[in-house]
Each structure stands twice: as C-alpha cells, then as structure tokens.
Amino acid sequence: DAGVIQSPRHEVTEMGQEVTLRCKLISGHNSLFWYRQTMMRGLELLIYFNNNVPIDDSGMPEDRFSAKMPNASFSTLKIQPSEPRDSAVYFCASSLDRGSQETQYFGPGTRLLVL
Amino acid sequence: AQRVTQPEKLLSVFKGAPVELKCNYSYSGSPELFWYVQYSRQRLQLLLRHISRESIKGFTADLNKGETSFHLKKPFAQEEDSAMYYCALFSGGYNKLIFGAGTRLAVHP
User: Which of A23, A31, A43, A110 to mutate to test the interface with B (most CBs of B within 10 A)?
Assistant: First the structure.
C-alpha cells in the first residue's frame, strides 16, 4: 500500500482562484482528517469524516473552505476564493475507527502558496 | 476545554546532550496522549503512545496526571533526532486528535 496519497504536492495560485486539494485514503480505513500546518499555529484540524460522513467541521476557518467525501476512499478540500493567508501545508490523514489507540497515517501534504 | 500546550517552538541541543520536549494538556477525563514526529521531507508519523509505555528510538514519555504533563525525553540526543515533534491528545470518539503547536528539535554536532 502506498499509504495516504495527496495531490497536488505543490500548488501556486493567485488570490481569488479556486483551489482543490485531493486525498486518497489507505484502503480499508474509514476515518479521514484534514489538517492545516503553519508556522504560527502548528497543526490544526480542519474537518474529519467517519464512514464518509462529516463529523466535526468546527475547525474549518470560513465558508470559503469546503470538504467532501464522495466515496469511501477519496476526499477533496476546496478553497474558493483563495486568499494569501490560506498559504500553508495541508495534510490529510486516515485511520481505522476502532478506538482511541488507532494510529493516524498522514499523507505527504500539499504545499499551497496563494499570491 | 481540551488543549495541548507545547511551550517551546524551538529546542536546540548538542549531540549527546539530554533532551526534554515539554507537553502539557487540559482534559477533563482520563487522557490518552501521543507523540508524533515529522522528519525533514518525511510524513508526520506516530512516535509513541503513553498507553504502550514503550521506548522508541530511545525516546520515552511518562504521563503525569498531577502535573497534567506528557514530556518527551531522551538521555542522549542524536543528530538524526532533529525533527518537528507534536504532542497530541485523544479527544474522544472517532479518533479525533488535538495537536499542540509543535516543537522543532535541532541537534547540533
């Protein structure tokens, strides 16, 4: 298994443009997490899904951010319109939902730069 | 409120020196805590969990409920330990983790 796969790995865009980040879960995992990493705030949980259902989106910064899980193995995080302050590394992670000790497996991240 | 605090953004030590990365938490129930590590150009990955009472790569962490701490320790730092370290608290239900802001450990030769 290649682990959690994210695309693109790097994205440079201009303010106002739509950005779509993609994530493929590890086969068999049923929990999916989107995080944002910045120097100032560290690692912040944006939203997480369990069995394709969004459970907690309280970390989503604004209505400009939306996330979907159209099937059990794939998720997207969309920013529309993007702003320079959205520049960060975005990680997704997946795990099994079998209790508190399940490890979260992280993807390589998407480095986003909004000019 | 559930919170994880890592007071140091950067910890810089020389090779062979002891290391202690601080982590304090705020949680009303019985806490379950983890340390995750991100080496340069690698994915964030689990280092250890308190329930296992394990030593990984020479690192240990003891849960101190009285001080609400879960500090990560290693007696003799190595250059390959240089990385970003995140302390995380399990928040209950669906494996939600609350991460601290992270501490960058730099081990100099």
Answer: A43
Token digits of residue A41: 């705030």
Distance between CA atoms of B8 and B104, rounded to whole angstroms? 8
The closest alpha carbon to A90, from A81, A103, A77, belongs to A77
Q: pLDDT class for A42, splitting at 50, 70, 90?
A: confident
Which residues make beta-bridge pairs with A7? A22
Taking CA–CA distances from B103, the nearest residue in chain A reads A42
Q: Tokens representing B94?
A: 């669906």
Q: Is the pLDDT score of B11 beyond 60?
A: yes
Burial B20-46 (b: 16+ CB within 10 A, else e): ebbbbbebeeebbbbbbbbeeeebbeb
- Chain B residue with the nearest C-alpha to that of A53: B94
Distance CA A31, CA B81 (A): 30
Asked if B49's CB is within 8 angstroms of A106's CB, the reply is no
Q: What tokens appear for B109 in the block?
A: 């030769």
**What is the nearest CA distance from B78 to chain A, expressed in angstroms?**
24
Strands A65-71 and B19-21: unpaired
- pLDDT tens, residue by residue, B37-53: 999 988 999 999 887 77
> B28 versus A85: which is more confidently predicted?
A85
pLDDT score of B95 more than 90: no
> Is residue B15 within 8 Å of residue B58, measured between CB atoms?
no
CB A3 within 8 A of CB A70: no
